[in-house]
Structure prediction request, 269 residues.
Amino acid sequence: MSTVPALRGPAVPDIRLTWGHVVASELRRLRTLGSTWWFTAILVLLVALVGTFPAIGVAVHALDGPPDEAGPLGGGLGGIQAAGILVAAFGVLAASAEYATGMVAATFTAVPRRSTVVVARAAAVGAVVLLPSLVLTFGTFGTVRVLLGPAGAALPLTTEVAIALSGAAVGLAVLAMLGVAAGWLLRSTAGGITAVVVLVHMLPAVGLILPAAVADRVLPWLPGNALGAIMAPGHVQGMPPAWASLAALVAYVAAALALAAAVVRRRDV
Prediction:
């Protein structure tokens, strides 16, 4: 008796959904969104234009000289606070927009492990913000240095200045990732932006109602103050070292994303 060999179709490659695949997919998604490029353009305007504005005034002799508060950075980080709100909004929108369009169900169908999506999106948003921010902070400082040179302002690129410029870029990435966590948690763009602004800019007001001894221990570790510490050229009196402030910010991001992942896993969508 003869046997007929079983027919076999083409081999299906074993494609495993790894962490790297998810992050790469999130990066591609961000590159295809028009809002990403709009946010980038506005970020350039805020950091570069606002940061160089006083120096331009000195260069065209509209100002007598660099203001005293410009310090060793020459005022090059003058637009960072406004840029922080912008990147926080970008991070919130990266998570909340899918709830508004209903695409979140398709995302979780493609990647069933929801915690992976939460963390991967935060990593992608952080990378998209960090890289141009590094270019902008150092580029703005270099431009300010050139503009103020003829006015006799010496702005050497010391280690402390380099750390402050890098810290400003890292701080923007931290705010963006906190925004992603807030977007996942609240599923609302307005609510997420408000939450980040309250956390960073309004929470330090609790020092007004705390005993002085407690406030001295608590306030330096709040997100807004920790961000200020890593953006300062040199040690800030009453604040922990920049590396300790950075560690605190990493802990805040990790805790926010862990909470967001736990909440998202328990939701129906």
Summary: Residues 19-266 form one domain.
